[in-house]
Structure to design on (393 residues):
């Protein structure tokens, strides 16, 4: 077989076997991961973890490209274990490690990712990267046990058809949540995945703090820190909840599973919203979830990430900057509407976005876009106010 050499970032990858997966479209995903990892390591609180450099597991590696890029482009990594279950892939990983002269950092591994993560439960990694074909959830029980306290999980899901609601029963089986067919489906996909990671973590008294959650092209990718605390785990149950979409006007409401009692402790929500009729148009609701209702991003982390981009040479830098700037402005409000859909429900012509946004601001509310949808309206205005503005148009 003849070798084709592919350059991406500072890595030179030999691809000579069509059985080994290499997807050039994912360069944005890998560039972003290089930037996130750099920022994570530079962060003061992370440095305290391992002064001599951090450890990384790329559990599903294919060619080794990602690991080699981390080794060459990110400062402060002591060791990367680069794993794949497929023997041909591991051969390719070994060849590429040699070709890039990163033997001192990158170690090949031929193992079932789950088994490897269970074996390393007592010798945890600081960072675990999961980039599977499709759904990542079968790897999560291992991953949440194998990442250190304050460690980082970087997780991709590419099974968007399932996450956006085309096969709700499959989504329930894989992610333990019912998706809704909604204009906000891409953000809902992120929140379904985060809910699932949080649920796996909770079983071991661990909780997640999302640093960055991105919907791009045909996949989603989340970056979450992991910590251990029974108390915080309970607190995180207030950040998980159900989502209700009106069958008439598509108005969205969310309801956390638990509330914190003023006297201390937590109380389960006793009056499910699904039993109520929509306050806008009196129709019934579709019920979806549970989804993550907490923040999708740590805005301090996003600022640091944007600062660090200046020093990086990444092919997709402009696109990363563009997406991160939108994310930096994103309101911490679950889900969103789209202007075209709101107007088409009442069969009216869509006004310019600027005018609609100004109306919300003039009414005293905040408004932003979501990076997941160009025509999105994310706002803290109550549904009644949004509909008053739509009807007044
Ligand atoms: N991360 C790679 C990149 O950025 O180029 C792409 C990884 S590819 C989408 C998924 C890989 O996971 C395949 O090479 C496949 O052999 C491997 N894989 C699937 N199931 C696995 C398992 N249980 N353990 C380890 N590797 C597995």
């Amino acid at each position: 077989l003849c070798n084709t050499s592919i350059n991406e970032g500072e890595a030179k990858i030999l691809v000579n076997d069509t059985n080994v997966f290499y997807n050039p479209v994912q360069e944005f995903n890998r560039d972003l991961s290089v930037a996130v990892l750099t920022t994570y390591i530079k962060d003061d609180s992370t440095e305290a973890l391992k002064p001599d450099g951090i450890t990384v597991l790329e559990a599903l590696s294919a060619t080794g490209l990602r690991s080699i890029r981390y080794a060459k482009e990110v400062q402060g990594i002591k060791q990367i274990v680069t794993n794949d279950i497929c023997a041909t892939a591991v051969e390719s990983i070994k060849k590429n490690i040699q070709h890039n002269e990163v033997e001192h950092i990158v170690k090949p591994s031929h193992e079932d990712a789950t088994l490897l993560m269970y074996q390393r439960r007592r010798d945890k990694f600081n960072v675990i990267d999961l980039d599977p074909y499709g759904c990542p959830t079968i790897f999560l029980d291992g991953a949440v046990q194998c990442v250190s306290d304050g460690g980082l999980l970087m997780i991709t899901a590419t099974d968007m058809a399932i996450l956006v609601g085309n096969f709700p029963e499959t989504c329930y089986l894989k992610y333990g949540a019912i998706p809704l067919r909604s204009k906000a489906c891409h953000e809902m996909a992120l929140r379904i995945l985060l809910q699932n990671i949080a649920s796996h973590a909770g079983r071991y008294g661990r909780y997640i703090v999302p640093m960055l959650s991105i919907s791009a092209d045909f996949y989603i990718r989340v970056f979450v820190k992991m910590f251990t605390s029974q108390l915080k785990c309970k607190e995180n149950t207030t950040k998980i909840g159900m989502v209700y979409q009106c069958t008439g006007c598509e108005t969205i409401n969310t309801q956390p599973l638990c509330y914190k009692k003023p006297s201390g402790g937590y109380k389960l929500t006793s009056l499910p919203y699904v039993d109520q009729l929509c306050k806008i148009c009196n129709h019934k609701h579709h019920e979806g979830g549970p989804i993550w209702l907490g923040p999708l991003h740590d805005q301090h982390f996003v600022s640091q990430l944007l600062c660090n981009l200046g020093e990086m040479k990444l092919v997709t830098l402009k696109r990363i900057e563009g997406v991160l700037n939108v994310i930096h402005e994103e309101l911490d409000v679950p889900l969103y509407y789209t202007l075209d859909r709101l107007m088409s429900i009442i069969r009216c012509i869509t006004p310019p976005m600027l005018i609609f946004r100004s109306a919300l601001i003039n009414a005293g509310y905040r408004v932003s876009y979501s990076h997941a949808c160009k025509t999105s309206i994310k706002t803290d205005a109550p549904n009644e106010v949004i509909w008053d503005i739509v009807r007044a148009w």
About this structure: The mean pLDDT is 94.
